[in-house]
Every structure is written in C-alpha cells, then in structure tokens.
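Minutes, project check-in
Item: structure for the 261-residue chain
Input as provided by the requester:
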Amino acid sequence: MTRLWNATADWLDRRRALTARSIGFVPTMGAMHRGHASLVERCREENEIVVVSIFVNPSQFNDPQDLNRYPRTLDEDLRLLESLGTDEVLIPNASELYPHGYRFRVEPDSSLQIMEGTHRPGFLQGVMTVVLKLLNLVRADRAYFGEKDYQQLRVITEMAREFFVPTKIVPCATVREQSGLAMSSRNRLLSPEARNQAAHLFRVLTTASSSAEARANLDARGFTVDYVEEHWGRRFAAAFLDGVRLIDNVPITEVELSEGC
C-alpha cells in the first residue's frame, strides 16, 4: 500500500523508521507519463523502498502563466504510482518546502548559464535549490533523473558531487512516443495537430548536418526557436509550438548515424 505524505515533519518521522533497506527516489512535478513510469520501474528493480515526490516547484518558473498552465493530474498520478508498487509519495505544498520563503538558494556557476540557464532566468537556481532540499529530505541511496532534461541532470549530478550528497544520481534514457516525440508532461497542452507537428523536433535534431541547419528547418516548420546548441557531445533544442515550450536533445552519434542512413 502506498503511503502519502504532505507534511515534511511527518515524512521525517517516517524516514527515520526506514532503516537497513535500500531507498530509491524519483522526484517529479506530476502529470505523469510513460517516461515517469520507466523511472519508477527502474527504481523498483534496484531498491527495496521506492519514494516518489510530486511537487510543482514555483521557484523554477520565470513565467507565472507557465506555472499556472502546468498540468496537474494528482489523482491519475497516484493511481499510476500505486500500480507501479511505489511505497512512499511525498506531496508537499510550497509552504512545506519553503517555510520561510525563498530565502536561501543554490546558485549555478556562470559556466553553466547556457541554454536553459540563459533562456529561463532563475530556472537552474530553482531546480538546484529544490532538488537539494528533496535529496536531503529523502536521503536515498539512488535518485533517478531522465536524460530528456539533460542539462538539468548534468547540473544536479555536479551539484550533488560538490556538496558531498551521498545519493547516487542515476541517469535514465529518454522515453519517446512512436513518432519520436520525447515524452513530456507539457505534451498534454498540445492540440492533436501540434502534437503531430512536434515530432519534427526530434527528426530535425537527428537529421540536420549542423545546429544552424536544424534551427532553419525548425523555423521553416513553424516552431519558434529559443536555441539549438551543441554541448557535451549532444545537440540540444528548445522551441515553442502551439504556445507550448518543448525541449529535446540527442547524442551527436545519433546525428552521425542518421546522416549515414
């Protein structure tokens, strides 16, 4: 039976009782899909206790309208987590995680202020701050993050290492729809026509010979492009379609394989 926790004090009492067993953790913002399920399934395979958090973190949204529009499907999420054998679910509100407001923050180094760090002011700061709080609350052996948000994954991995957080950060491959579109909670906001169009984001990233060509192809297909850049052996893109901001990334090796087909 899945246990639900709203108050951090109650959760900490529960956490103290979870001794001598391995704990895995999947932090989420809810509106779950098959990508989230894959993280929980891997967590279930590799740990005795599975903990999932659902928290739409206001500090990582630089646009209040984007925060308000973010899908919230708590009842569906809880049914899914129950079916996956989740043991503990943390569902704190903002006053639980920020009891005195947003007074203390983790700042990324200027070298990390690229892509999302540039185009979404405060995003990386908000992600790092809330994830550090959650890692300290759960004190898991392993925490699972998807590679779709690769820059976020990289920053969290480096932050955990810098702050000597004992939790191992486990990267998990992006889960895609049959069309190639990366699974995302924001996909729920797309119209059926835009959802079909959105699949071109992945196709363009894997077929264009350069970032400049990829950007031009996305522009031509009706996307409003924030960026297409290459870092860490991967090609990244963020673009708006139907008023919804989509992100994706692929290893450069996938691009080379596509060119050779």
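Outcome recorded: The chain has two domains: 3-172, 185-255.
No further action items on this chain.
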